[in-house]
Design brief:
Layout lengths: L4 E7 L2 H11 L4 E8 L2 H4 L11 E3 L7 H10 L4 E4 L2 H5 L2 H6 L4 E2 L8 H4 L1 H11 L6 E4 L2 H10 L4 E5 L8 E2 L4 H12 L11 E5 L4 E10 L3 E3 L4 E2 L2 E3 L3 E4 L4 E4 L6 H21 L5 E11 L2 E8 L6 H5 L9 H10 L13 E8 L14 E2 L6 E5 L2 E3 L5 E3 L3 E9 L2 H12 L2 E2 L11 H6 L42 H16 L32 E8 L4 H8 L3 H16 L4 E11 L4 H18 L2 E9 L9 E12 L12 H6 L11 H14 L16 H5 L10
Parallel strand pairs: 1-2, 1-4, 2-3, 4-5, 26-27
Antiparallel strand pairs: 6-9, 7-8, 7-9, 10-11, 10-16, 12-15, 13-14, 15-18, 16-17, 18-23, 19-24, 20-23, 21-22, 25-28, 26-28
Helix pairs in contact: 8-9, 15-18, 17-18
Amino acid sequence: MIERLRILVIGSGGREHALARTLSHSPSVDIVHVCPGNGGTALSSSTSDDDSAVLNFDIPVDDFTSLVSHAKKHGINLVVPGPEAPLVAGICSYFQAVGIRCFGPSRAAARMEGSKAHAKEFMQRHGIPTASFRNLADYEEARRYLDGVGHQVVIKADGLAAGKGVMIPKSRDEAQKALKAIMLDRQFGTAGDEVVIEEFLEGEELSVLTFSDGYTIKSLPPAQDHKRIFDGDTGPNTGGMGCYAPTKVASMELMAEINRTILQPTIDCMRREGTPFVGLLFTGLMVTKSGPKVIEYNVRFGDPEIQTLLPLLSKDTDLARVMLACTEHWLDGVELKVEPKFSATVVASAEGYPGSYVKHRPMRFDPVPKDTYIFHAGTELDKNKKLVTVGGRVIAATATAASLEEAVAKAYRGIKTVHFEGMHYRTDIAHRALKATTTTTTANTKPTSPSSPAPPSSPGRPNENKNTPLTYASAGVSISSGNALIQRIKPLIASTSRPGSPHTTIGGFGGSFDLNSANLSLPPLAPTLIAAIDGVGTKLKIAFAMGKHDTVGIDLVAMNVNDLVVQGAEPVLFLDAFTTSKLDVEVAAEFVAGVARGCREAGCALVGGETAEMPGLLVGGEYDVIGAAVGVVDTRGWSASSPTPPPWSRATCSWRWPAAGATPTASAWCARSSRASGSPTSTRPPGIPAPASASACSRPRASTCAAC
């Protein structure tokens, strides 16, 4: 039997009205409580649908104790916090402590929005594309940094600032004034104790809202918000004056790239850091000439993005069940489908907004057109049960249609059914998309899953050629990056030349080694080839965390050649394979430099290698490596099971203990050899402790033959 849900939505904005309305229509929901709610959630007749299953309760969003008591008293079994402030303050833990599920991240995970500096450092650690930046907590240091910057910047207050803590100065003088306003004049209070100064990015903005259970992700269609108060994207920033979805700039290939390089790596890396993300991750992106980059993370539904997106959900998509699946970690078991339509939202604000604004203006409504929704934000019922304005962003109209042009036109017809003195709204919502379109764009006729590859004619991809050829680039593989890497590592390969392989090159299908010219000092016809193959295991995690990639290259060689040396073989050839989600030439070149150094120490030639990009198999800039080595040995009268080493090894090698310890194979051989000779057995020489620090753990294992 499907569990019946009694839901508590926390908040009082347009976002919460849209959530309450959609959840109240869920077949698995009995009732929706909203604390404190607004005029729209209090008065169902103010919308085009019957929201009688929605009830308001006057409890502030920051009174966690009273909210929990209310939930227990009324049998609430799923809580949906709307605003960012209670999430960043850790509201979910209060409900979870009394056994009530909460759709939202933990306090630790919510730092992705609560601290922009923290989020930028997270992206830097995990190779998630974002603008170059500096985090600065000292005003004088920040001022000096601005003086030395040679490009346009964006200045962001680190903490929560109601969506207004971002400054985009046009000149150096404006930048200094913005910095002073944030850090000295305390325009945003303690949110400005630290600032992020980052590179200004040019391109198209996207908002992607993604459900996550900590493992699986399912995204709603990409949307585009309009932050500035006036037409033409002018005037000060607001919480959002309008929105449309899906965006035309977000092709199927682009969304696949965003999922592969940004969204899934973000969720995976948060989980690996011990802060799994459960809830709704709202990622603000800029689509630049060099690809999509993260502007910011938010840990809640966007406003007005969610008012725009919820009307696109298919009739058989149960939002409450999607949220429940996130809290219980079975999101992969539910479907999130959207109708093949466009949606547009127009927000009306109060006189004076985003500055000091006028309140308590009476409101009047005309009948609302079909497929149009009125979502209340800054409204309430006065003592006479009449609607009045109380907020800066007062109300919004959302409409859906088969074309973006018609959706926008219907949204404007909807907002004109609302009347109050001093009402202001932009008249150019979706202007960039409409300006770029010369013909009417229509949507598909079949619901699609936004988290799965959409058909070529999906919304936002008009007149797409269905016979577009499949290429490496469309699969996320960069041939140009591969060629650039080859040029970088050619001299490294050449540096490993040795007798028998004097002309080590790159680019062929295999490497050769001439035993006759190898100067091996072995009897004629005696040499036997011995091969080994190995990786470096979880030590790669340390390389990722430290951003140091050469030592694992040395390690890879050592792991293989040590396996040869303990069998009495002289290493002569080495090959490696480097597999990554997306090729970073700098990282790959650093790794190969380590391999080349290891080969020089071991006296073997690096005769070949493979570099492969596997988008979707590996994430977040991570990679895996494998190596193979070939050696020669005079095996007359000796077998691999012999308790003593063969003549070449015993005559020429003296074992050297590396700082991080010998390989398991080397340790085993040493123990076996010591037993045979009567020498004491030791797996670690006295006085050499196990490594305890990350730097010690990253220290490369020595090639046993480096002391030969």
